[in-house]
Amino acid sequence: MRTPFVFIDGDQGTTGLQIHERLRGRADIRLLTLPAAERKNAQRRAEAINACDIAILCLPDAAAREAVQSIVNPAVRVIDASSAHRTQADWVYGFPEMSAAQAARIAQASRVSNPGCYPTGAIGLLLPLVQAGLLPASYPVSVHAVSGYSGRGRAGVEAHEGGGDSPAPAFQVYGLELAHKHAPEIALHAGLAARPLFVPAYGAYRQGIVLTVPLALRLLPPGVDAAALQACLARHYAQARDVQVLSLDEAKALTQLDPQRLNGTNAMQLSVFHNEAQGQVLLAAIFDNLGKGASGAAVQNLDLMLAA
Fold first, then answer.
1. Which residues form the Semialdehyde dehydrogenase NAD-binding domain (predicted)?
2. 117 is catalytic
């Protein structure tokens, strides 16, 4: 049986470098990359993408669209790590744990859109609750998240590690125009009726995300409490290798959330915190923005496609 060729287009960015590192040395694939002198050569990139079995695009959105348009070989399959195709109906969303059938859809797909880093946590928390009717689709959802500076890509890494004259801020909230590109992705794939209020931030550490969603129990259906929310998440992810749902007792024992705790893995930890007397619940997700939030997810999707 022929060893499949996997081409990484854009392997010098943070996501591409991590994917390359995760795939290097594997005997079940032949990894293709372009030399530095040819990375901006449109003809060579088109030749490479049409010669591979699976292409992984680690490019800006416009370049990702151009790369897909250059494909003339119908046998080429694509995993796009950009946000160019995440809300398009003809692309399969690359979050295997979102439903019982999603992994099979990814395995058979010719076009897979890798989820965004923040949406991975938000959708992971919200979708099971919306599907179960515990969280109304019309709920006014707010998502607050802090990522390591690598979430900005090479510019973020350079700002913090490049040794420039002006030190990068220790903490910065951004997306203040409330029009972040992740909001439509979260709304669509979490089954929300409207865009969530999404407030992202960067911290002065390299990688890792902590994402939280506050809920008011008075706005949920009668009888829905923290135990019901946690039980729903636990059932949904009971067979998921890479998603762990803490029990209410395990969550209660925590006094803080460390966004770097799962760095270097493809794992995601979900928690439900609550204050029943105040009628408040906090949903939380921890994961590596370069792992389950990017390169780890891409490799997970690649493995599903290779096994098909």
1. 5-106
2. yes
